[in-house]
Amino acid sequence: LQAKHFALLTGHYSRVGFHHPGPAFFYVQAGGEWLLHDLTRVVPAAYNGQAIAIMALNATLIALALTILYTWVRSAAAVLAAAGITLIFLAEHPQLVCSTWMPHVCFAPFLLYIFAVASVAVGRLPQLWIMVLAGGLLVHGHAEFLLLVPVLALAALVPQRHRLLKHRREVLIASAVLALFLLPMVLNVTLHWPGEIPQYLAYGHRAPNSPVAAARFLAQFWGPGPALGTVFLVVLFAADLALVRKLAHAGIDEAVQAFSCRLLRATALATALFAFYCWYGVDHLWQSYIGVFSYALPLTLLILGSSVLMVLAMSRQVVARHLAAGVA
Known about the structure:
71% of the residues lie in helices and 0% in strands. The chain is mainly alpha-helical.
């Protein structure tokens, strides 16, 4: 209700006693409620409009991730394979895209953020605004991303630091998107000084979890249980590393090689950052919902592996002739 009157300046309330940084997802839900329930009466209840708005947002973010992939591989077959893998994965975890619960809504932005970080790091600066969009949604969604998002952003921007001044238009567009996400946070601190910041800092000063327990917490999002999750984590990284190296020996376009390598690195960095958060940031390791956004990590590797495998297959004429029918 506050968002429908543009009066909401904070995110959802946390069980540990503070509001998360921003209200972006509530404004999306409010927009769906206003358009689909209040204005058009397409849906019978206010919550229906909220749920459809979140699902539409998730669909858009996942589509953007696949679009970024296509801009690099330029292969419809590879993107179709990646989309198929994505749909199978989401069929196993439908709550990640069909739920309005805040821990679930961070999944799609995190998936897009990893792809955008990799793309910008390789030099696709026109996609900088997409990286800022996904990062802004994540920071608004949960305080933990105040650590993860800036570090991953540095990994993308540092390699391109000398080119940023030459691409002023892209930087200005990204800055406008960033300003939109910063506005409610800055207003909240200004109007209700000092806002939520002291509580974020106080929460950060706590004893770490044991490394083994933190590793078990991380691995549960990679497979059915920590043991198999650990196996799948190692296998997926190893398989994707082998496939990416194979690109260099198969005469594939260097741009595809560069993006695939950077996407693998971005996923590895995001996994390491999440591991650090599991070790030092999660207060109760039995609260598994805290890490459900990290389902995006194994999905990213599955998308990368399937698309690279398809690109390699397409490079062989015998396979390529029959590949369209096989993909269909």
